[in-house]
Records
---
Amino acid sequence: MLGANFLPNGVNLEALLKTLRHLSWGAADILRAYARAEQPPYGFPKALQVEDGGDGPVSAADLAVNQWLMEGFESYFPSADWKLLSEETAKEQLVEGESLKSDWLWILDPLDGTKDFLQGTGEYAVHLALVSGHEPLLGVVLLPELQELWFGVMGVGSWCEDREGNKTPTRLSQRNTFSELILIASRNHRDERLENLIENLGFGGSKSVGSVGCKVATILRGETDLYLSLSGKSAPKDWDMAAPEAVLKAAGGMFTHADGRPLQYNTGDVRQKGCLIASNGKNHLELCEKALQQINIIDPGFKV
């Protein structure tokens, strides 16, 4: 079990996990309803189409799940010594260059993979991460369409649950040579530099999916071995990476910058810029070293 220093006073891990299950499956029901243009549960309104004066299903789903999660945390843990930061509330909460003053911070993404949600691929996710000292200590990645709820607790481990609470352990692959490694890449966020990097590293194969949570889940199932993110005009944000990182690291994988630096959260800049590498951990340092060499050729001066 986690030590007392991992959670605020008065917060019990098992009670917290029970609440996270309830909030996560509720979020799944809300998102699946919006994705199918059905009446969502818990009193949330159906999405109005843009031509009818609404913002469309993505905005409606984002806002509904955000409200569900924020109100849920406040209801179940009214006295907990933590703050909540959501992608939907960040503009109101954050001041550039200033971190939020709290020993514990929940970083929430109500809908990661909005393009995939809109395109109907099903490759979207919900991310919940508890961060302390700029590091995610507990993560939840919900994949509504696959009915998978991934948990990662540092010092305890990672696992997947279905709606009945049946648990499946993570299965990181044992592949460890570059010619065998399977890359999981972004479908919607890739440019020529990333294509060149992937080609030059000489992996055994690649797959493409949407949400970062969906990508990391393929590593946790042993279907793939690594994920690369190379920022360009935009960069992933704290809420994209924190929960997937927590689940992967608790399973024994690794998630760092290409120079080996750890990712950090709540630093005053929510952008996770540079070259980020997530892997099954088998040859992570060698992978970082080779990626760094190639980036220096492809884009000299790029800050990894």
---
Amino acid sequence: MSNSASIERDAADLAWSLWTELGVPGVIRRHASLVVDPEPLLVATAELAAVDQRLQDEALHWWETHADRLSVSRIAGLASALPAASRGRFESFSSRRGEGTNVVHHRRSREVAAVRERPPICLPLERPSLVRLRMRALSGVGARADVLTSLLLGRPRWSSAADLAAAGYSKRTVARILTELADAGVADRRADGNALRFRIADPQSLSTLVGDKGLTEPQWPRVFAALTEILELLRTRERPDAVRRVAAHAARESLAAVCAQLEWTPPPPTRGVPTAWDDVLAWAARVVARLAAGPDPVS
């Protein structure tokens, strides 16, 4: 299988695994010990499942069923940060929301359509990976629940508003919530130069309520940003060699910055390298395959 085909397959497999963890009917479930973050996944799905219409349909049906559990402002913030082409694909994807609510069956004997409601997708909140959604059930949908979750999962690390704002909320909103949590005694606060840093004051009590033990959380917004860059590069496969080399170098520079934040090995050098496009794609194929494999296949 070519690197291009394996990247598309593995990107879709990663999305299937995460959506299956959220309750979508699927057979791939490999990320049960990782925290699933629904808004970054939703915003990335148009890219990850570009070649899988069924997955797009299932994700849209899940969104229709559980829209009240998602932060509209966070979806908007994450979408606005996408590159222009990716933002357009997400807008096209999201405009189809609601199309999958009904299933139409045609009787052979008549040219009449009988419409049957699709059953809602159940949300398996008992799964450890859905700790973010359990926190929202406890404290409401929005930035407060997500800030609490990030502080809890990040213990004992001290975090600033800038650290947590990368998850799709404004720094001002996160700073206000952190201050309120500290004023309420839920978070500890300390000065670090000109910045304030915070951590959960009593992680054990909150952990007992929402069940986060044994979980890790990738920086999903940054992971999906890297995947978006890789899939965008893949779209140049039919372009002339010179165009592909330029695209590979631009992608390499962008990916190197994200890799530094994620502590990944960066892509290989591309400047002046005739095989730059193939080299970056080979690196990308290994990265996407590792992400899709997950830390813990359970089916």
---
Amino acid sequence: MKYVKFGNAGIQVSRLCLGAMEFPDNCEEKVAQALLDEAIDAGINFIDTADAYGRGTSEEFLGRALTPEKRDKLIIATKFWVKMYRDNINGGGCSRYHIIRAVEASLRRLKMDYIDLIQLHHPDPLTPVEETLSTLDNLVKQGKVRYIGVCNHYAWQMAHMLGVSALHNWEPLVSIQCRYSLLDRVVENETIPFAKRFNIATMTYGPLAGGVLTGKYKRGEPFPPDSRVGRTKQMQERMTDEVWDILDEVRALADKYGVAMNKIALAWLVSKPYVTCPILGGKKPEHFNTLYDVCEFELAPEDLQHLDKITASMKYGPFANQSIFQGSELALNRW
């Protein structure tokens, strides 16, 4: 396993991050425990979860699965924003009221004294960014949080946050988590240039485009009804002739190198120096254990250029998983 500095932070993380979204709700606890231990043995020291994953069950699983010895060697990232208390109108978002409750609840579920990286799962248009950032700064000062990051934010929203943090000498955000794959390159237009300019660590999810880049789907054949594409009309609509042509090219490269398609897709991501760490997700051993050596697997420069060329149009489309275009509420009593 290779390791890399985490943006402006002083820590180093493994080049691959283990995503715990499916643990343990979509795989048996013993399987999830084995997958976690195997990832740690492979050198992964970075684990990403969220309070929303299983409505707390993912965090609870990590609280049970990680011994104090293991936890001390790991960087644990979690998130808040999702409404966790359905009968409470203030039970979500990025207000001081919710952030403090969310962090305390995550600490209880994780059975930990501090969170290495706390992330805003989405922007909150109702809460002034000053309220959010001052609250997070206090949590850092209290030792309950080490670093601050965001997910699914536009570049200008991050720029606003960095500017406000600098103005008040508060802890700045150090990372962005965004969707990025051969079939979704929209973040290259603004998010990636922004992250490069300000040295923001870039965690990328969906490296296999929801399983599409694994080769499990075949042109002209019906989608398995129990598959993600089979269950999701929006994903079915994205399976255009252009996407099928790209999959044919990726499959040809996989045959050339004698590997599975998922390794080609992940190797392309790892080749990008501005990607700090792709997040591996899944619920079966084969979703993980065949990819741990991807950092030692290199595609020829001409093949990387070919992948860039055939997927160039994937840079133009809607920003994935983010419908909140506006900024945070203006704090009229702050200057």
---
Amino acid sequence: METLALILAGGKGSRLDLLSEKRSKPAMPFAGKFRIIDFTLSNCVNSGIYDIGILTQYLPLSLNEHIGSGKPWDLDRRDSSVTLLQPHSFWYEGTADAVLKNIRFVQRRNPKYILILSGDHIYKMNYKKMIKFHEENDADLTIATQRVPIKEASRYGIMNTKGSRIYEFEEKPKVPKSDQASMGIYVFKPEVLYQVLEEVKEPELDFGKHIIPYLINNPKRRVYAYDFVGYWKDVGTLDSYLETSLDLLHGGDKVLDLYEDDWKVYTRSEDLPPVKIGLNAKIQTAMISNGSVIEGTVINSILSPGVHVGKGAVVKDSVIFNDTVISDGAYIEKSIIDKQVYIGKNSKVGHGSIYTRNVEKPDLLYSGINVIAKNAVVPDETVVERNVRIFDKCEIKTKVVKAGSTVR
């Protein structure tokens, strides 16, 4: 096949804290029924790219089970292929090192272009247009870029260009020189990639830190920026995850459209019954997934498959993962609740006006979000204030969990 796509999907996503304790970031639920990696996989098949290698590492079981043979993305056909590439003798030590350790797989495919993608971003993109741009410029490497707010630029690889050609690049600079950020999407000439992976000898070999600067500093190499105009989000923090999720509910030009017929997002769906809405239920600006039963109130929230909201219960400004039970009379606000959690009767999660930063994770939880891990239990009549972390299998012994606490 002409293009081989390599999806880097081994990231831990440590800034997502408890949500990534038992899954890799690309396997995280998103927008109710989807996983984060579904967006990259769907971009591939919608772009006509059916030869895909997925490089997994951190807690790969959930991701492997989700992808399986690739049938939901039409990747189980005779003329298509999805291959899960896990480390064997040695752990992947960087993004480029992950590709280097699978170089024989890549060379056996003998592609004309190598497309390297991140498996943990939310966006829709026609990769064919980027590959055409790469070909027209006879580029050795093309990097997809997008303009970002300058105050956030230090989170990204930042570059400067003359025309579209990149002459300067710095990975996550403390003082950014521009707002043109790398999206972590690369098109390589195969022979250039093979050569540079052999030439650059660095520990924890990384595209942003090592490979890209090495090529830019070589005047014989042609490195170009493909300026992408469209929706693209890195949901790498709890705040960005919740904000990006809830933005989906309000539509508009600056929000990803999940309802386009000509660019669908595919996923492995669960066989569950339709949503059931009770007599006294109230739903306002929400996404409710299959198998859910709503007897209470859901406002500005996203519910994954199989969620039960009991009578008199309220879920507001929150994201609830699969098969969680919100019991009668409970109140949930500004919270991310993982799978199979039980919230007891008349409990309150996200309560009060005290916004003490989380003592253990002050840089992650400061805006009032609560995070509850998979299989956790919040007993009846319990009040959980704000910026609280609750681990699975913990025993909550007090009736009030103070703001900024961690319960394990």
